[in-house]
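Researcher: Structure prediction, please.
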Amino acid sequence: MYENYYRFRAKPFQLSPDPRFFYSSKGHRRAMAYLEYGVHQGEGFIVITGEVGAGKTTLARALAQRLASQNVVLAQVVSTHLEADDMVRMVSASFGLVAQASKAIQLKQLEQYLLACQTQGKRALLIVDEAQNLPQQSVEELRMLSNFQNGERSLLQSFLLGQPEFRRILSNPMMDQLRQRVLASCHLGPMSAAETRNYVVHRLQTVGWNGDPSFSDDAFEGIHQYAGGIPRRINVFCDRLLLMGYLEELHAFTGEEVAQVVEDLRQEFAPDIARIDPTEAQ
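Model: Predicted structure follows.
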């Protein structure tokens, strides 16, 4: 809809993670540096946490894009409360292996695959997203997989991406052995007001923005105040702002238009108290 109106090549604020739109804020640069450091080390765990919508998955996909030309075999698992045995099967499937009925056979097959990768001069890297959903036993299973070695060389390295509560899981005394294998850990916090502005401009320029529509300083300030510097919230809000611009044929956004969209969203998601029958609430 508004893409054609503003002559964009694509939708600038889509919700699905896309490495094309990766914006290197201070926090994201630090996290990417940790990930690249981890890749260079080739062993252990790297832990990246952040609030919902902070850009952890986009970060992982940007890393995968950077590794595409290197001898790295990358697999990604999105956790959905996987139990320990299911975790082994999911990891194997992510590397393209056929599931086996026996866990012992599955583990042997995975080890042989990882050995073959090393023989071919390749390194295996596993990215586990939404790690906070994993039961403690499944996290421990990941640690056990890190025991696969050929001599002194580790066969599998893992990056764990999760929401802040994942740090509480790792702080459990039972997780001491895994913590000892964490090479680096960092937290993705919200972007600053200046970074929010640059983030919006970056995504617009990625799809061919030439200044239409324009954004005033107070418009950027309003976007940051509403979204709190969280990338996904910025995407949702700016998508809605551009839709309003298309419907009302606007080519400039100020704090007034931003405030209007803020109010529209608040009304849409606020409880409709007027429709509640007091007798039903008792």
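Model: The mean pLDDT is 89.
Researcher: Thanks, that helps.
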